[in-house]
């Protein structure tokens, strides 16, 4: 094989280090920008998913005992291969996910390579934590003495990585890289809409020298493959990114088998904008909901809470921002807002826009399907802004996962905090204020896994995960290494006896 292009056109599963013909044939992957076929993805049977899990189980023992330096070398080599073949990878990511070229280059393929580099270093991080010695008195179990102890992180075992469609490079890399760094083996089940990039990722790892069975990739257009990747008896852990509804079903299966879970689920991020905020910065940050992945991102600040004094100014500025964003073909460098992932998802987002109208929210921008310039062939949604929302509206409470923002007014700090808390979700919230003391005071009272203070930026060493219905566990940075490990206590006698 030259480079990593072969498996994408071959349409085969990756099991036990081999490219395997699927039992169920193939299904089409569609370009969201124009409805054209990008390629064919393999349809795995339940038996083939179990075969992949068995291959991962067989490979686990040797891989978990591999020297950290060797794991680091392979992860670093994979990053180099991804970077070497980035042009082809970016093209594929754009075509199957609908991301703009700039987003596919920087935030998908670029972030994936960076994550493999990061966890090449992570493989070398210490896994032992010395604990203070404990003096014990003589008793029924024996004489007194001093007991030494270590807490040591060990790999969990076989990890099923079930990934989301909004980022077919960075999301799988964020699971696979730390899992491998810790000595786990993986079975990756990508989202059915855009799995071809994940096969390129697997090919890069194979070319980097990952042993057979350490990484396996299975796909399917129906829930069967994903269900098998969760319920297979040899799976020790499930790492899932996706909707809260699917996460609940996975958690039930994991609970029956006492399997470790890492769940990054939905979000309905509250953005509190106080009257002393830099409104330009707030608009630019909130406006990323309209443009970044066309709103298909769980961290988006989709629920904007604006203090009454700046409410109308903020609504007007957000409307102007939304209306000047170019919607179009993601291959066009001028495009800022590309399509959503599928016709079905476009229809879902549009149904929420209609629901917002019926619920009484004021439509300020968008609300109509973009047309002209070939947009009728793709799955486009205009950046949409609602004002005068109330906390009981479904468009305020439910994750839409599209370029739709709803603005609600508040008067006092306490009222703003209460509105932010009135949600089933708690992934990432945001606070914009010119008073740092207030901003951090408010942030400390928000029940969410992260808070952006005057920014929507992410620190990629900070823990990532949610409260309530937004997930279970934390990853990113060294926190991901902890997520993909179990802690073992080692205790021994020492000192004066």
Keywords:
single chain; 497 residues; alpha/beta; Aldehyde Dehydrogenase, Chain A, domain 1; Aldehyde Dehydrogenase, Chain A, domain 2; 2 domains; 7-stranded mixed β-sheet; 6-stranded mixed β-sheet; 20 strands; 39% helix; globular; Aldehyde_DH_dom; Ald_DH_C; oxidoreductase
Could you characterize the architecture of this molecule?
The protein is an alpha/beta fold. It folds into 2 domains: 6-265 and 471-489, Aldehyde Dehydrogenase, Chain A, domain 1; 270-465, Aldehyde Dehydrogenase, Chain A, domain 2 (3-Layer(aba) Sandwich), CATH 3.40.309. 39% of the residues lie in helices and 21% in strands. It contains 17 helices and 20 strands. The strands form 5 sheets. It has a 7-stranded mixed sheet, sandwiched between helices. A 6-stranded mixed sheet has the order 9-8-7-10-11-19, with helices on both faces. A 3-stranded antiparallel sheet has the order 5-6-20. A hairpin with a 6-residue loop joins strand 3 (26-30) and strand 4. Helix 2 packs parallel to helix 8. It starts with 5 loop residues before the first helix and ends with a strand. The relative contact order is 0.14. The model is unreliable at 1-9 (pLDDT under 50). Keywords: Oxidoreductase. GO terms for molecular function: oxidoreductase activity, acting on the aldehyde or oxo group of donors, NAD or NADP as acceptor. Residues 19-489 form the Aldehyde dehydrogenase domain.
């Amino acid at each position: 094989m030259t480079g990593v292009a072969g498996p994408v056109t071959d349409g085969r599963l990756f099991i036990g280090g081999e490219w395997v013909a699927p039992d169920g044939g193939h299904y089409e992957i569609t370009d969201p920008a124009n409805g054209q076929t990008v390629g064919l993805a393999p349809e795995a049977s339940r038996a083939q998913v179990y075969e992949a899990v068995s291959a991962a189980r067989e490979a686990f023992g040797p891989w978990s005992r591999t020297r950290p330096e060797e794991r680091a070398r392979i992860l670093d080599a994979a990053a180099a291969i991804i970077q070497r073949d980035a042009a082809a990878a970016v093209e594929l990511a754009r075509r199957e996910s609908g991301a703009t070229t700039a987003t596919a280059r920087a935030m998908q393929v670029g972030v994936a390579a960076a994550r493999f580099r990061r966890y090449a270093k992570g493989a070398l991080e210490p896994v032992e934590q010395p604990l203070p010695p404990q003096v014990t008195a003589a008793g029924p179990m024996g004489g007194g003495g001093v007991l030494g102890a270590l807490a040591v992180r060990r790999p969990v075992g076989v990890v099923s990585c079930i990934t989301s469609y909004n980022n077919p490079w960075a999301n799988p890399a964020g699971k696979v890289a730390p899992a491998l760094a810790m000595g786990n083996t993986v079975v990756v089940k990508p989202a059915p809409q855009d799995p071809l990039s994940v096969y390129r990722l697997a090919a890069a790892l194979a070319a980097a020298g990952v042993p057979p069975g350490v990484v396996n990739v299975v796909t399917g257009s129906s829930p069967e493959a994903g269900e098998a990747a969760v319920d297979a008896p040899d799976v020790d852990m499930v790492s899932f990114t996706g909707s809260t509804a699917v996460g609940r079903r996975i958690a039930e299966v994991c609970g029956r088998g006492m399997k470790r879970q890492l769940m990054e689920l939905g979000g309905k991020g509250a953005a509190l904008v106080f009257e002393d905020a830099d409104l330009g910065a707030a608009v630019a940050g909130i406006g990323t909901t309209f443009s970044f992945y066309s709103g298909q991102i769980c961290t988006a600040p989709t629920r904007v809470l604006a203090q009454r004094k700046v409410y109308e100014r903020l609504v007007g500025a957000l409307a102007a921002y939304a209306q000047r964003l170019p919607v179009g073909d993601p291959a066009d460098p001028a495009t800022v807002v590309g399509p959503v992932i599928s016709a079905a998802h476009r229809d879902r987002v549009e149904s929420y826009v209609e629901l917002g109208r019926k619920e009484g929210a004021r439509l300020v921008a968008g609300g109509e399907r973009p047309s002209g310039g070939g947009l009728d062939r793709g799955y486009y949604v205009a950046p949409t802004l609602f004002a005068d929302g109330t906390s009981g509206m479904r468009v305020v409470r439910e994750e839409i996962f599209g370029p739709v923002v709803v603005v609600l007014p508040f008067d006092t700090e306490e009222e703003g905090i209460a509105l932010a808390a009135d949600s089933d979700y708690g992934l990432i919230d945001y606070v914009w204020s010119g008073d740092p003391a207030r901003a951090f005071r408010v942030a400390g009272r928000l029940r969410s896994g992260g808070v952006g203070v005057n920014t929507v930026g992410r620190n990629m060493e900070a823990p990532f995960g949610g409260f309530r219905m937004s997930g279970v566990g934390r990853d990113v940075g060294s926190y991901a290494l902890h997520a993909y490990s179990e802690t073992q206590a080692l205790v021994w006698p020492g000192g004066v006896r």
